[in-house]
Amino acid sequence: MKHLHCLITFVLMFSFGIAKAGEGMWIPMLLQYNEKEMQEMGMRITAEDIYSINRSSLKDAIVLFGGGCTGEIVSDYGLLLTNHHCGYGYIQKHSSVEHDYLTNGFWAMNRGEELPCPGLSVTFLREMRDVTEKILHGTNVDMPEDERKAKIDENIKKLVADLEKQTDYKVSIKPYFLGNEYYVLFNEVYTDVRLVGCPPSNIGKFGGDTDNWVWPRHTGDFSVFRVYADKDGRPADYSKDNVPYKPAKHLEISLKGVEEGDFAFVFGYPAHTNEYLPAVAVDQEANLIDPIVVDLRGKVLDIYNKYQEQDPKVRIQYAAKHANIGNGWKKWMGVTEGINHFHGVEKKRAFEKDFQKWVLGARNRYMYLDLLKDFEQSYKELEPYELAYSYLAEAGLRIELVNFAGRFARLSEVTKDTPQADIDKMVSSLKGNAATFFKDYYEPIDREVAAMLLKEYLKEQPADFRPDFLNGIKDVDAYVDQLFTKSMFTDEAKVNDFLDNFKPSKAKKLQNDPAMKAYQSLIGFYRNEVNGKMTELNANIDRMRRLYMKGQMDMQTDKRLFPDANFTLRVTYGKVEGFKPQDGKTYRHFTTLEGIMQKENPDIYDYVVEPRLKQLYNNKDYGRYADKDGTMHVAFTASVHTTGGNSGSPILNADGRLLGLNFDRCWEGTMSDLIYDPDICRNISVDIRYVLFIIDKFAGAGHLIDEMSIVE
Ligand code: ARG
Ligand code: GLU
Q1: What sign for the dihedral angle of Cα 340, 346, 351, 355?
Q2: Which of 162, 338, 432, 640 yields a CA-CA distance of 20 to 30 A from 622?
Q3: What is the model's pTM?
Q4: Is 9's pLDDT higher than 90?
């Protein structure tokens, strides 16, 4: 029996103990340690070809696009590719009824037609260095946390100041391995970035939210920009005298396509992962918090759907809200599903047993002794606060009326002593808020959502630990009726009239509005009962997680661990492959234009096919972009470890040539932010040949293709 137990532990350990193919988000400057494995998997280039500070390398073509995506340079004239959903906001800003680029697409037929995008920047990493020693200098494991933090802050400040004297680059120092290591990043930020082209949404967002996170997928999720610089190639704000940025390196594009089993890697900016959590935290997230949020969001989405189906106007009004809520909803559903399917919590527990054994194996591991026990305790203490927070955000503030009323909270505190200029500023910004709010507001939806959410709130959260106003509610339906009838915030004319004639004596009216009262009760509860304690508990948990991370590194000296994603440049690699999401079900690794035609439905917004695309399909007019099987490949999956922020990242082949743009994951494997399982975690990319086909054949923007370096 004992033996059997050991064996099982060993097997579990083993599957956890070695880096699995596909797992890992690696620091580019340390890629020489991965080189051997990458080459064994098929890579034909070197680590130095990917990241070098001595010569040009692929890293010179990769950018952080705006604040949340990745982009890559594909020509000597600063031409940049990213996802359609990454460029969306900028495309939208340039769209109007006369020029509806979201619906129709946009193509600059020469550089003069490219559209400036104020506020958009791209960031190039020029160099990174390990500065752990300097930053941790003067700290030790036994020192109180606040002292440690003060020391580190001081070291960072000093080093940044020193380095800034030596360089024109932007200097930032970031923690890796949860604060066990520190690296300095030298960045260059370009602020003149122009929109060059994008397909119509029927292509760039084909499948919409219905297909979001789902395989098989047929989205042409790309858009094209260009980076401009001053005549010396340096960053400069928009000017018509600026010239296209000439990169040290741009990506070459492969037209060879992919085969199952091919080596592939993704180079980009993954935002956040939590791969080293204790079991108790994974359990709490996957089995308690996520299911609650998924359930609440699912019920909200059901109501949205019902009204959206009845009325095309409502469908448009609630499209963006639906997308926002739906993105997390589907992802977290996948997290729970994946963790349980993979027995993630049990595997973590088995690992923890071994960790504890290891800790007991030597005296100098004393600092880890109570760690796991303390985790159990701390997460248990955190639980009611996490729940309270989830209900506040997902139930209370999800009521649009209440949320909107909250915008007026500052105005409700105005007194006769408030300077008129401040009041004028508030009023004018609130008028803008009101216009945006009412444009997309449909009261019957909000009423039904409010009644549903408040019932859930009352049912699930304890009377002694929830916002006060809830305890005053006897009959939810009657309360909601009153709320919506009495509040002025449902009525655009009333709100505007109020703002136009606002004076301090009217602040009371705001305070007494029932929607404002509900808002204040929610926020007051958060401020007084939740926030302080949650911050305190999380600070302690962060300290423990840092220590546990160090313990995991000390224990597994034979295994290279990768630091959690922290929105810095990483390389992640695996294979082009499909998967088996369920018993009896197999997903092929690629999709084709045939699938777009199969999904076509002129009555369903997400599945309308552009006539021009249909024509190209009917004529099989794919040019050199067709696969050797004669079809037009649209998207493909790979076992490459990616997360949010990797949108727009290049996926590259064994020769470092561009195969496609990463844009999503399969929902069954979204647990990869917590635990990676090579069997079910897959990223999804749009095939570069489909991208070029759309640019060239669909849009007739072949001049852009001429700039690129294409390898047939
Ligand atoms: N799921 C992807 C991500 O997390 C894509 C989201 C945008 N696409 C959409 N259909 N909503 O960002
Ligand atoms: N769509 C995500 C993004 O915008 C990438 C998908 C993921 O989370 O893997 O970054």
Answers
A1: positive
A2: 640
A3: 0.92
A4: no
